[in-house]
């Protein structure tokens, strides 16, 4: 099998680090216990490993193709999507009242990881549909929810997010697509949207586009943007399909990776206007879009973890099979499999440690999201929501940045074969490269982390997390042995670095915004490394307690945690230097535009 | 122009850091003064910018194609190769007696950089020819030199290196291709060679393959390998071409990048044996091949610097043109070009600093090579040769590792457009990815750095370099101002880290080879970062002295050096931790094979 979901590792994180039992005790999640989780993950592992994983390389070789406004997806995708839909996989975390399964995000998250590890290009379609469902549930009328959500969950229809225009990438204030009210409650939309993932395809009968546009009298900037629903085929009141709407896919992009996922240029209103419907209130479009985007950003972070794990599995398999050179310690006279060479071992351990650290942090974030939605105490809900929102840009930014490095190491482990496309390792290197760009570049995530997440509460949420890390550090100090000593040393240094960086950001963002934002991405990476390292420390403690129950599994957790401490967390102080020295005219901005 | 060679930066390094005047004072290099250098570089900049750079993207779109054993290169390559040859560019550093120009490696090196920045796929053909020339000059008979070298320099023929076989990648001991003596001084070769760059093409009339093979009674392992010359067309005594030889290109690879460069599978001897000639003495093949490889490894390091600079130039151009979002400091109410955003500035400065640092180190290494060959004093020659050989794996390993990061940042600066192949930024990301693999992976370079370069003289060469760094640190201490303070702080810390790493390597490599080799690649990276940082420190001192002469140019050098200190050199202590903690069972190797 080309992808075997690491169900045991996932359940370890869910149980020991994200406290699934606590989630299962929340109102509404009574059935979401460990047995349920195990059953869902086993089933997901089977489906993704058997059906979707084998199609991944096929999608790279035979990408989606455009012809006369229509897009034909990779052979096999249509049937796989039918199976995906029938299995109920779109609805795992969506409400039961709209035909979803109503499971916690903590259980849905490993399912999303598996889906993306098996086939990232395929997974983008459900990922965008999830965003559309989220936006409709948040801002749609009950009639809209009833009309659209069950069909999105069943896979009969899919959803998209239409934000970007040629002049409006990261800067949505520049959106120009316009929506003219027709007096009957509907609107006519006119404009061009680019980079629309699964903006056109043949997997489902209809596509529900959620589109940012301006009404005629709307103010300039982000405050004048509203959110509209524009179906590919108009929908009758009974849910049946009406006429083809005036939205046309004029081309799809020729991309570095995720080639099976069609990236559409959509033209609205070339033939009289595309019929659309306002979602929520006028001029609140960006706010609703952020709800979709936060869900999507978390999911993109999961894509990073997923592609990293897939690249890791492939590299491990190759390293165990490829025979080359004798061992450096003279322990054999004949060439050995390359996993016996220390540098290959280092690369594999790096891939593994980065992936496990990011996974642990993301699952913990998912649990905070569940607590934020379902905890009976409002104060607790607010606090968990704050932590979740603090973690989202880190999960998105850090998991994707590390995934590029991990995929690149995966190529390196394969040596010359890694550079040959037929080997398949290069696909992950190409696929991963989009992840730090779409749904907000790493810099956009970092700005969000600084502006909305660190500053808005004066650093309170960040400090609360640091206080929790201190407790873990105290627990490490009570244990004996090199793994604990290494982790104690590097987590202490790392959290001090993070604390000083937070202090710097909070103190300087108003008086010297250029200096702070010049270090924004290093700040996000530092937070990612330290917070993931904190989870690895918690994993170390838990694994040490359980070691006797399953020596091989838990000693691997211990070794991986130690490796993370010594080889990843150890970089934290250097990154801190990069953040606090990024000062104004003396630093990053010293080179003038004309000197580049 | 899509590539403008940074002639001024190159001359700055040649003059101020690599001491061109000292090279021009060596016997045989009397004409190689600054005026000559300027003239050669200007001419190279013109040719590469106008002729080769525009063909780079074309080569990616229309790669070399194989049909019935023949390879057709990208349209335009043949004419460009004619111009390259007529311009005398193959012969810049080769001896005048074989029709070369006999210029120092220090002048040839920027020419090689330009060639690779303009068109890396094209440049691979001359790069391999250089290697063949080098091997023939070292080990060939005078008759062989006379017969082959002038035609390789004139571009009438080209050269290749045939090392790899399916079972023999990094481990050349496994080479199985056999060479049977025919009694007339010639041999018949039989075997399969893979990954042969420009192993077949239509740019020149003949291809001179240099092939590693075993004679019938040769011992096992690397000691039984000899080097043979196998021409595609047999060569008559007068240099005219005879019959087609029994070497056939059976396929070329479908690669992630450098697509215009054909990577051939060559089959020798399927029709009675390929006629070949022994180069040098029997069983000394690997030794000669290492001469070629050392030249080629240095050149691959230059490829890293070249592709990094090209990616940087493209990213700068885009950042100065693309308008998106208002500045974070509120200095404008309208969206600005993205170069005004601190994170974009940070990315561009990172790309620039890494590229300039690696370039400076490589050019300094080239000067040591010239001194090693031409210094009148034998002791000096030996000492410069030792430094050059110490630097080669670092130039190869570090310049290529950083080039992947730089090319990746180049994609990131372009945002979503970077992921679209038509933009061209993604090509550099794909092309660069081979550089840490071919001509010896980074791990192979790191093993060489530890085994042959650090250990063989008990760390003496490494210590000599550290002593020179100390002198630079002392000079920094005498200057005032933040750039000097930052550089002093981080170069001091970095060189201490490097000193401790060297000490660790020397002390432990015999008693605990696994621990040392587990940190081999971090050791190489640390050496690359610190030694390049040392050159940036020297650049800082020189630029500061000259500042008044050209304020804009030298203040940019100062700012770039400071950036390097604060954002690159600052990572050195973290890497040291990774090296010295990579200890045996407690570290990298703690995870057993079955636990991956």
Automatic annotation (TrEMBL), chains A, B:
Recall the GO molecular function terms of this protein's record: flavin adenine dinucleotide binding; oxidoreductase activity, acting on the CH-CH group of donors
Which Pfam families does this entry report, sorted A to Z?
Answer: Acyl-CoA_dh_1 (PF00441), Acyl-CoA_dh_C (PF12806), Acyl-CoA_dh_M (PF02770), Acyl-CoA_dh_N (PF02771)
- Which InterPro entries does the record cross-reference, listed alphabetically? Acyl-CoA_dh-like_C_dom, Acyl-CoA_Oxase/DH_mid-dom, Acyl-CoA_Oxase/DH_mid-dom_sf, AcylCo_DH-like_C, AcylCo_DH/oxidase_C, AcylCoA_DH/ox_N, AcylCoA_DH/ox_N_sf, AcylCoA_DH/oxidase_NM_dom_sf
Ranges where the Acetyl-CoA dehydrogenase-like C-terminal domain occurs? 465-582
Per the UniProt record, which EC number(s) apply here? 1.3.99.41
Task: Quote the catalytic activity from the record.
Answer: 3-(methylsulfanyl)propanoyl-CoA + oxidized [electron-transfer flavoprotein] + H(+) = 3-(methylsulfanyl)acryloyl-CoA + reduced [electron-transfer flavoprotein]
What function does the entry list?
A: Involved in the assimilation of dimethylsulphoniopropionate (DMSP), an important compound in the fixation of carbon in marine phytoplankton, by mediating the conversion of 3-(methylthio)propanoyl-CoA (MMPA-CoA) to 3-(methylthio)acryloyl-CoA (MTA-CoA).
EC class, as a word, reads oxidoreductase
Please name the source species. Answer: Caballeronia terrestris
Q: Where in this chain does the record put each Acyl-CoA oxidase/dehydrogenase middle domain?
A: 161-267
Which UniProt keywords are present, listed alphabetically? FAD, Flavoprotein, Oxidoreductase
Q: Which residues form the Acyl-CoA dehydrogenase/oxidase C-terminal domain?
A: 284-449
* Name of this chain's protein: 3-methylmercaptopropionyl-CoA dehydrogenase
UniProt domain Acyl-CoA dehydrogenase/oxidase N-terminal: residue ranges: 38-156
The UniProt similarity line reads: Belongs to the acyl-CoA dehydrogenase family.
Species classification: Bacteria, Pseudomonadati, Pseudomonadota, Betaproteobacteria, Burkholderiales
Q: Which domain of life is it from?
A: Bacteria
| Cofactors | FAD
